[in-house]
């Protein structure tokens, strides 16, 4: 048993869960994974993050975080953005589809990853924390680490894609790490047990 407050992470994405376990390791909370399986019908990252977090809070009665994230291509007007998880039936096809849409577009393919975390605690207003990582999408798949679009996302100044980085290195640059840092620095997790 532990007397640390429990915090539900509303996600069924193993890549994300692994990152949150690492990012929130020192936060003084016991993390519980729970896939709230809500439909992402929101029109913004924040709306979708709220839907996931609040569904997990109502079903568990515990404080919950949900996140929504995506990759945005400048030359495609921010596409796929909140639709990043829906570009194809599996990640291999989603990545291939994104690269297909970039065919003929002059490089560099400037891009950013965005992550919004919603924290929904019982009896409190839901709060939001955002992070981004700017970089470039490259046409060749590089590296096997991480998940999602990591192998085609090159981080400026490192010469590496997220797919070529260790978890520690990805964490120095990633949108999810930046959003988690904002959550940690807000002090909101320390107040969960008040
Ligand atoms: P959602 O946040 O569950 O809607 O999924 C967002 C989609 O964006 C995921 O399926 C990934 O394909 C992509 N994505 C979000 N964060 C990352 C990341 O850190 N690396 C690679 N792909 C990501």
Describe the structure.
The protein is of the alpha/beta class and 194 residues long. It has one domain (6-193): Maf protein, CATH 3.90.950. The chain has 5 helices and 7 strands, in the order βαβαβαββββαα. The chain has helices spanning 14-23, 45-60, 91-102, 167-173, 175-186; strands at 6-10, 30-34, 64-73, 109-120, 127-137, 153-155, 160-161. It has a 7-stranded mixed sheet. Strand 1, helix 1 and strand 2 form a beta-alpha-beta unit. Helix 4 (167-173) packs across helix 5. The longest helix has 16 residues, at 45-60. The protein is globular. The site of inosinic acid (IMP) has 18 residues, from strand 3.
At the third CATH level, what is the topology name? Maf protein
CATH class: Alpha Beta
> How many domains is the backbone divided into?
1
- What is the number of strand segments? 7
N-to-C CA distance: 20 Å
Q: Helical amount among residues, as a percent range?
A: 25-40%
Mean pLDDT: 95
Strand content: 15-25%
Shape: globular
Treating each run of at least 4 consecutive H or I residues as one helix, how many helices? 5
Name every ligand kind in the structure.
Answer: inosinic acid
Main beta-sheet strand count, sense and barrel state: 7 strands, mixed
Give the low-confidence spans.
none
* Overall radius of gyration: 17 Å
Structural class: alpha/beta
């Amino acid at each position: 048993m532990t007397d640390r407050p429990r915090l539900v992470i509303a996600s069924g994405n193993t890549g994300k869960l692994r990152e949150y376990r690492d990012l929130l390791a020192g936060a003084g909370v016991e993390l519980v994974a729970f896939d709230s399986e809500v439909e992402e019908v929101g029109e913004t990252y924040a709306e979708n993050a709220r839907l996931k977090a609040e569904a997990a809070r109502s079903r568990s009665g515990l404080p919950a975080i949900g996140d929504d994230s995506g990759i945005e291509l400048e030359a495609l007007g921010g596409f796929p953005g909140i639709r990043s998880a829906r570009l194809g039936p599996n990640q291999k096809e989603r990545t291939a589809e994104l690269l297909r849409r970039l065919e003929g577009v002059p490089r560099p393919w400037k891009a950013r990853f965005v992550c919004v975390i919603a924290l929904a605690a019982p009896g409190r207003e839901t709060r939001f924390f955002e992070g981004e990582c700017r970089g470039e999408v490259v046409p060749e798949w590089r590296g096997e680490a991480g998940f999602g679009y990591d192998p085609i996302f090159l981080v400026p100044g490192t010469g590496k894609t997220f797919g070529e980085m260790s978890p520690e290195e990805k964490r120095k640059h990633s949108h999810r790490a930046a959003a988690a840092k904002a959550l940690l620095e807000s002090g909101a997790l320390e107040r969960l047990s008040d």
